[in-house]
Write a structure and sequence with these properties.
With 185 residues, the chain is an alpha+beta fold. Helix content is 42%, strand content 27%.
């Protein structure tokens, strides 16, 4: 048994070592600054606009189809908090989607018990002033749904899967655009 650990002088030495270590490490950490980290939704600087304000000035071009409209509505809602489309946009977001359905759990008779709805959204963010593409990429959304004997339930299950996949794509696009706009000066 270590008797020094229970002795008052042993406790004082441990505490003094801890304080000494903190005093030596604190200046080093202070010299590191913020390390390039910035809050995503905080101010970009003195007088700078935060990512939410900049995202609200992005116009989302109409995306064809029901799922395209769901993605567009989700983006507009997330960008403006339900405030509607951008009035005087600085940038334009163009999105092209590709949809597919993959069967899974295929039985011996060829019927599928489950399917996966896939949506792939290729996007580009265009600066309106000079029509230059400042960001481009691809976002994916997938949602599984069960198949039944009822046609109505199959249609409704697929629509629900489409809505869930569109929501995933909308949230992903919002996060990617926010990250870009927070870093762009």
């Amino acid at each position: 048994m270590n008797r020094r650990a229970f002795h008052p002088a042993g406790r004082w030495r441990s505490a003094s070592r801890l304080v000494l270590a903190a005093l030596l490490v604190a200046p080093v950490l202070a010299a590191c600054g913020n390390g390039g980290f910035r809050p995503l939704y905080g101010s970009a600087g003195i007088g700078g606009a935060n990512a939410d304000e900049r995202l609200a000035k992005v116009s989302v071009v109409t995306i064809p189809g029901r799922v395209g409209q769901q993605i567009r509505n989700e983006l507009i809602f997330l960008a403006t908090g339900g405030g509607g489309e951008a009035v005087q946009p600085d940038m334009r977001l163009e999105v092209a989607i590709r949809e597919s359905v993959t069967s899974s759990l295929v039985r011996l008779d060829g019927e599928s018990g489950s399917q996966i709805y896939n949506v792939e959204a290729n996007f580009q963010l265009v600066r309106i002033s000079d029509r230059s593409v400042v960001l481009k990429g691809t976002s994916f959304g997938r949602a599984a749904f069960e198949r039944n004997k009822s046609i109505f339930s199959n249609v409704r299950a697929r629509e629900d899967a489409e809505n869930r996949a569109a929501k995933v794509v909308g949230e992903d696009l919002k996060a990617r655009l926010s990250a870009y706009l927070a870093g762009a000066a």
